[in-house]
UniProtKB/TrEMBL annotation:
Signal sequence, start to end: none
Species this chain originates from: Rotaria magnacalcarata
Pfam family, one: LIM
The keyword Metal-binding belongs to this UniProt entry's keyword annotation: yes
LIM zinc-binding domain boundaries: 19-85
Name of the protein: LIM zinc-binding domain-containing protein
Keywords tagged on the record: LIM domain, Metal-binding, Zinc
Amino acid sequence: SPPLSASLSSSSSLTSSRDRCRRCQQLVYCTERIGPVKDALYHKLCFKCLKCDRQLDFKTYFTNSIDLNDKEIYCQSHVPRSGKGVFSTENIHIQNVMKAPKLNVMQKLDDRHTGIHLDSHSVSIVHAMKAQQMFQQGREKVSAIHKFPALPPDMIRAREEVRRAQKSLEEKQRQEEDQLFMKFRNARELEEKKIEQEVTDEWEKRLQMLTAKYEDDLQRKKDKTIEPELTLRFSKEKAELERNMTLKRDKKREMARKQLMEKEQETTHSLVSKFSKEMITLIQEKELAVL
Protein backbone atom coordinates (compact mmCIF):
# COMPACT_ATOMS: atom_id res chain seq x y z
CA SER A 1 0.00 0.00 0.00
CA PRO A 2 1.18 3.60 -0.59
CA PRO A 3 2.86 5.29 2.38
CA LEU A 4 0.80 7.77 4.39
CA SER A 5 3.05 10.72 3.54
CA ALA A 6 2.65 10.12 -0.20
CA SER A 7 -1.11 9.79 0.14
CA LEU A 8 -1.41 13.00 2.11
CA SER A 9 0.85 14.85 -0.29
CA SER A 10 -1.29 13.84 -3.25
CA SER A 11 -4.43 15.13 -1.52
CA SER A 12 -3.16 18.62 -0.71
CA SER A 13 -4.88 20.17 -3.72
CA LEU A 14 -7.28 19.38 -6.57
CA THR A 15 -5.22 17.13 -8.85
CA SER A 16 -6.03 17.50 -12.54
CA SER A 17 -4.62 19.07 -15.68
CA ARG A 18 -5.70 22.43 -14.23
CA ASP A 19 -2.83 22.13 -11.74
CA ARG A 20 -0.31 22.70 -14.53
CA CYS A 21 1.05 26.13 -15.41
CA ARG A 22 -0.45 27.54 -18.61
CA ARG A 23 2.94 28.91 -19.66
CA CYS A 24 5.41 26.08 -18.93
CA GLN A 25 2.97 23.16 -18.43
CA GLN A 26 4.76 22.13 -15.23
CA LEU A 27 2.97 21.33 -11.96
CA VAL A 28 2.01 24.33 -9.85
CA TYR A 29 2.19 24.05 -6.06
CA CYS A 30 0.31 26.24 -3.59
CA THR A 31 3.36 28.21 -2.50
CA GLU A 32 4.15 29.37 -6.04
CA ARG A 33 0.66 29.54 -7.52
CA ILE A 34 -1.10 32.52 -9.11
CA GLY A 35 -4.66 32.06 -10.26
CA PRO A 36 -6.89 30.67 -11.45
CA VAL A 37 -7.28 33.33 -14.16
CA LYS A 38 -9.87 32.21 -16.71
CA ASP A 39 -9.54 28.64 -15.36
CA ALA A 40 -5.73 28.66 -15.78
CA LEU A 41 -2.97 28.55 -13.16
CA TYR A 42 0.49 30.09 -13.39
CA HIS A 43 3.79 30.00 -11.56
CA LYS A 44 4.59 33.42 -10.13
CA LEU A 45 7.53 33.76 -12.53
CA CYS A 46 5.40 32.63 -15.49
CA PHE A 47 2.67 35.21 -14.85
CA LYS A 48 3.75 37.50 -17.71
CA CYS A 49 2.24 39.45 -20.60
CA LEU A 50 1.85 37.24 -23.69
CA LYS A 51 3.24 39.98 -25.95
CA CYS A 52 6.17 41.53 -24.07
CA ASP A 53 6.93 39.08 -21.20
CA ARG A 54 6.48 41.82 -18.64
CA GLN A 55 6.10 40.42 -15.12
CA LEU A 56 2.52 40.90 -13.89
CA ASP A 57 0.53 40.50 -10.68
CA PHE A 58 -3.17 40.63 -9.74
CA LYS A 59 -3.12 44.44 -9.84
CA THR A 60 -1.46 44.80 -13.25
CA TYR A 61 -2.75 41.97 -15.43
CA PHE A 62 -5.56 42.33 -18.00
CA THR A 63 -7.61 39.83 -20.00
CA ASN A 64 -9.17 40.07 -23.45
CA SER A 65 -12.69 41.47 -23.04
CA ILE A 66 -13.31 41.39 -26.82
CA ASP A 67 -12.64 37.68 -27.47
CA LEU A 68 -14.03 35.69 -24.53
CA ASN A 69 -12.30 32.55 -25.85
CA ASP A 70 -8.89 34.16 -25.37
CA LYS A 71 -7.52 32.73 -22.12
CA GLU A 72 -4.26 34.72 -22.17
CA ILE A 73 -3.13 37.55 -19.90
CA TYR A 74 -1.69 40.89 -21.00
CA CYS A 75 -0.20 44.07 -19.64
CA GLN A 76 -2.12 47.34 -19.96
CA SER A 77 -0.22 48.30 -23.12
CA HIS A 78 -0.93 45.09 -25.05
CA VAL A 79 -4.43 44.04 -23.94
CA PRO A 80 -6.74 43.92 -27.02
CA ARG A 81 -9.16 46.85 -27.07
CA SER A 82 -12.30 47.63 -29.01
CA GLY A 83 -11.92 49.88 -32.02
CA LYS A 84 -12.83 53.56 -32.10
CA GLY A 85 -15.86 54.85 -33.91
CA VAL A 86 -19.53 55.61 -33.67
CA PHE A 87 -21.35 53.75 -30.93
CA SER A 88 -23.06 50.60 -32.17
CA THR A 89 -23.88 47.13 -30.93
CA GLU A 90 -21.15 45.69 -33.15
CA ASN A 91 -18.55 48.26 -32.05
CA ILE A 92 -18.81 47.50 -28.35
CA HIS A 93 -19.61 43.80 -28.72
CA ILE A 94 -22.95 44.09 -26.96
CA GLN A 95 -23.90 40.78 -28.58
CA ASN A 96 -21.74 39.08 -25.96
CA VAL A 97 -23.95 40.25 -23.13
CA MET A 98 -27.37 41.02 -24.60
CA LYS A 99 -29.62 41.40 -27.62
CA ALA A 100 -30.06 45.14 -27.31
CA PRO A 101 -32.59 46.92 -29.55
CA LYS A 102 -31.02 49.04 -32.27
CA LEU A 103 -31.83 52.65 -31.47
CA ASN A 104 -29.02 54.22 -33.49
CA VAL A 105 -30.13 57.32 -35.40
CA MET A 106 -28.25 56.46 -38.58
CA GLN A 107 -29.83 52.99 -38.60
CA LYS A 108 -33.27 54.60 -38.60
CA LEU A 109 -32.25 56.82 -41.49
CA ASP A 110 -31.05 53.78 -43.46
CA ASP A 111 -34.41 52.12 -42.81
CA ARG A 112 -36.16 55.04 -44.49
CA HIS A 113 -34.08 54.65 -47.66
CA THR A 114 -34.65 50.89 -47.88
CA GLY A 115 -38.41 51.19 -47.52
CA ILE A 116 -38.69 49.63 -44.07
CA HIS A 117 -41.87 50.47 -42.19
CA LEU A 118 -41.62 53.56 -39.99
CA ASP A 119 -43.56 54.05 -36.81
CA SER A 120 -44.22 57.43 -35.18
CA HIS A 121 -40.93 57.28 -33.30
CA SER A 122 -39.01 56.62 -36.50
CA VAL A 123 -40.72 59.54 -38.24
CA SER A 124 -39.55 61.91 -35.53
CA ILE A 125 -36.01 60.67 -36.00
CA VAL A 126 -36.20 61.22 -39.76
CA HIS A 127 -37.45 64.74 -39.17
CA ALA A 128 -34.55 65.41 -36.86
CA MET A 129 -32.12 64.17 -39.53
CA LYS A 130 -33.25 66.66 -42.22
CA ALA A 131 -30.85 69.37 -41.13
CA GLN A 132 -27.93 66.95 -41.05
CA GLN A 133 -28.72 65.68 -44.56
CA MET A 134 -28.93 69.23 -45.87
CA PHE A 135 -25.55 70.15 -44.42
CA GLN A 136 -23.80 66.99 -45.58
CA GLN A 137 -25.19 66.93 -49.11
CA GLY A 138 -24.84 70.67 -49.66
CA ARG A 139 -27.68 70.81 -52.17
CA GLU A 140 -25.34 69.58 -54.91
CA LYS A 141 -28.21 68.44 -57.11
CA VAL A 142 -30.01 71.78 -56.90
CA SER A 143 -26.83 73.67 -57.70
CA ALA A 144 -26.11 71.47 -60.71
CA ILE A 145 -29.57 71.93 -62.23
CA HIS A 146 -30.03 75.67 -61.66
CA LYS A 147 -26.39 76.74 -61.93
CA PHE A 148 -26.53 78.38 -58.51
CA PRO A 149 -23.27 79.61 -57.06
CA ALA A 150 -21.42 77.59 -54.39
CA LEU A 151 -22.88 77.16 -50.91
CA PRO A 152 -23.05 80.44 -49.03
CA PRO A 153 -20.46 80.91 -46.27
CA ASP A 154 -23.04 80.74 -43.48
CA MET A 155 -24.27 77.36 -44.76
CA ILE A 156 -20.72 76.03 -44.97
CA ARG A 157 -20.01 77.19 -41.42
CA ALA A 158 -23.24 75.63 -40.18
CA ARG A 159 -22.39 72.32 -41.82
CA GLU A 160 -18.90 72.28 -40.29
CA GLU A 161 -20.35 73.16 -36.90
CA VAL A 162 -22.70 70.18 -37.08
CA ARG A 163 -19.83 67.87 -38.00
CA ARG A 164 -17.67 69.14 -35.15
CA ALA A 165 -20.53 68.78 -32.68
CA GLN A 166 -21.26 65.24 -33.86
CA LYS A 167 -17.60 64.25 -33.65
CA SER A 168 -17.32 65.67 -30.14
CA LEU A 169 -20.46 63.84 -29.01
CA GLU A 170 -19.29 60.57 -30.56
CA GLU A 171 -15.95 60.82 -28.74
CA LYS A 172 -17.72 61.49 -25.45
CA GLN A 173 -20.02 58.52 -26.00
CA ARG A 174 -17.08 56.28 -26.89
CA GLN A 175 -15.40 57.16 -23.60
CA GLU A 176 -18.59 56.33 -21.69
CA GLU A 177 -18.78 53.06 -23.61
CA ASP A 178 -15.20 52.13 -22.65
CA GLN A 179 -15.83 52.98 -19.01
CA LEU A 180 -18.99 50.85 -18.96
CA PHE A 181 -17.28 47.77 -20.35
CA MET A 182 -14.30 48.23 -18.06
CA LYS A 183 -16.80 48.19 -15.20
CA PHE A 184 -18.42 45.02 -16.57
CA ARG A 185 -15.05 43.29 -16.91
CA ASN A 186 -13.95 44.22 -13.39
CA ALA A 187 -17.23 42.98 -11.94
CA ARG A 188 -16.93 39.62 -13.73
CA GLU A 189 -13.33 39.14 -12.64
CA LEU A 190 -14.08 40.05 -9.03
CA GLU A 191 -17.00 37.62 -8.95
CA GLU A 192 -14.85 34.86 -10.45
CA LYS A 193 -12.12 35.39 -7.86
CA LYS A 194 -14.69 35.44 -5.07
CA ILE A 195 -16.25 32.15 -6.17
CA GLU A 196 -12.86 30.49 -6.66
CA GLN A 197 -11.70 31.55 -3.21
CA GLU A 198 -14.92 30.38 -1.54
CA VAL A 199 -14.78 26.95 -3.18
CA THR A 200 -11.04 26.54 -2.55
CA ASP A 201 -11.43 27.41 1.13
CA GLU A 202 -14.26 24.93 1.54
CA TRP A 203 -12.34 22.23 -0.36
CA GLU A 204 -9.24 22.62 1.79
CA LYS A 205 -11.28 22.58 5.00
CA ARG A 206 -13.24 19.46 4.09
CA LEU A 207 -10.15 17.71 2.72
CA GLN A 208 -8.34 18.42 5.97
CA MET A 209 -11.22 16.85 7.92
CA LEU A 210 -11.22 13.82 5.61
CA THR A 211 -7.46 13.37 5.98
CA ALA A 212 -7.64 13.69 9.77
CA LYS A 213 -10.33 10.99 9.86
CA TYR A 214 -8.18 8.73 7.71
CA GLU A 215 -5.15 9.17 9.99
CA ASP A 216 -7.28 8.57 13.06
CA ASP A 217 -8.67 5.34 11.60
CA LEU A 218 -5.15 4.13 10.86
CA GLN A 219 -4.04 4.77 14.43
CA ARG A 220 -7.10 3.14 16.03
CA LYS A 221 -6.96 0.00 13.93
CA LYS A 222 -4.46 -2.46 15.36
CA ASP A 223 -4.63 -4.75 12.38
CA LYS A 224 -2.22 -3.38 9.76
CA THR A 225 -3.68 -5.65 7.10
CA ILE A 226 -6.70 -3.38 6.75
CA GLU A 227 -4.55 -0.35 5.86
CA PRO A 228 -5.03 -0.94 2.08
CA GLU A 229 -8.79 -1.01 2.62
CA LEU A 230 -8.71 2.27 4.57
CA THR A 231 -6.48 3.87 1.94
CA LEU A 232 -8.83 2.79 -0.86
CA ARG A 233 -11.83 4.18 1.02
CA PHE A 234 -9.99 7.46 1.60
CA SER A 235 -9.16 7.74 -2.12
CA LYS A 236 -12.78 7.16 -3.10
CA GLU A 237 -14.09 9.69 -0.57
CA LYS A 238 -11.52 12.24 -1.74
CA ALA A 239 -12.50 11.72 -5.40
CA GLU A 240 -16.18 12.09 -4.52
CA LEU A 241 -15.46 15.27 -2.58
CA GLU A 242 -13.56 16.68 -5.55
CA ARG A 243 -16.47 15.95 -7.90
CA ASN A 244 -18.95 17.58 -5.53
CA MET A 245 -16.80 20.68 -5.11
CA THR A 246 -16.33 20.99 -8.87
CA LEU A 247 -20.10 20.78 -9.40
CA LYS A 248 -20.66 23.33 -6.66
CA ARG A 249 -18.16 25.72 -8.22
CA ASP A 250 -19.71 25.35 -11.69
CA LYS A 251 -23.20 25.96 -10.28
CA LYS A 252 -22.01 29.09 -8.48
CA ARG A 253 -20.37 30.35 -11.68
CA GLU A 254 -23.50 29.80 -13.76
CA MET A 255 -25.71 31.57 -11.24
CA ALA A 256 -23.31 34.52 -11.01
CA ARG A 257 -23.04 34.68 -14.82
CA LYS A 258 -26.82 34.93 -15.22
CA GLN A 259 -27.12 37.61 -12.55
CA LEU A 260 -24.31 39.68 -14.07
CA MET A 261 -25.74 39.28 -17.58
CA GLU A 262 -29.15 40.56 -16.50
CA LYS A 263 -27.55 43.55 -14.82
CA GLU A 264 -25.30 44.25 -17.84
CA GLN A 265 -28.26 43.97 -20.21
CA GLU A 266 -30.29 46.51 -18.28
CA THR A 267 -27.36 48.94 -17.97
CA THR A 268 -26.38 48.63 -21.64
CA HIS A 269 -29.97 49.14 -22.82
CA SER A 270 -30.14 52.35 -20.82
CA LEU A 271 -26.86 53.55 -22.32
CA VAL A 272 -28.00 52.82 -25.90
CA SER A 273 -31.21 54.79 -25.32
CA LYS A 274 -29.27 57.65 -23.75
CA PHE A 275 -26.85 57.87 -26.70
CA SER A 276 -29.69 57.85 -29.22
CA LYS A 277 -31.55 60.64 -27.43
CA GLU A 278 -28.37 62.72 -27.17
CA MET A 279 -27.74 62.47 -30.92
CA ILE A 280 -31.36 63.34 -31.79
CA THR A 281 -31.32 66.33 -29.45
CA LEU A 282 -28.05 67.58 -30.96
CA ILE A 283 -29.40 67.40 -34.52
CA GLN A 284 -32.67 69.08 -33.59
CA GLU A 285 -30.84 71.93 -31.86
CA LYS A 286 -28.59 72.49 -34.88
CA GLU A 287 -31.58 72.34 -37.22
CA LEU A 288 -33.39 75.06 -35.28
CA ALA A 289 -30.25 77.18 -35.19
CA VAL A 290 -29.93 77.40 -38.97
CA LEU A 291 -33.54 77.35 -40.19
